[in-house]
Design brief:
Order of helices and strands: HHH
Largest sheet: none
Strand content: under 5%
Radius of gyration: 18 Å
Number of strands: 0
Length: 80
């Protein structure tokens, strides 16, 4: 069984990750000039959380909850 060479794919993903990091850093520096640091962190956390939920819903994966409050919240919003 021959192994597949994934080096070009890995290089592309590394370059994309570096680009995303640089763009995000520039956006954060621009936003930070007129918004408080805690607001930036809050918005970034909420956006990240929503992106993770969308990704998990797309992949049809479930989240294992460790706290009853989170179970009820996600049941309320319809996330199975």
């Amino acid at each position: 069984m021959a192994s597949k060479n994934n080096n070009p794919k890995g290089i592309i993903f590394i370059l994309l990750a570096m680009m995303v990091f640089s763009v995000q850093d520039g956006i954060m520096k621009h936003i930070y000039s007129f918004v408080s640091l805690y607001e930036v962190y809050l918005i970034r956390t909420i956006v990240s959380f929503l992106l993770i939920l969308i990704f998990l819903k797309y992949k049809k994966k479930s989240i294992v909850f460790k706290h009853w409050c989170l179970e009820r919240f996600f049941a309320y919003i319809g996330y199975d």
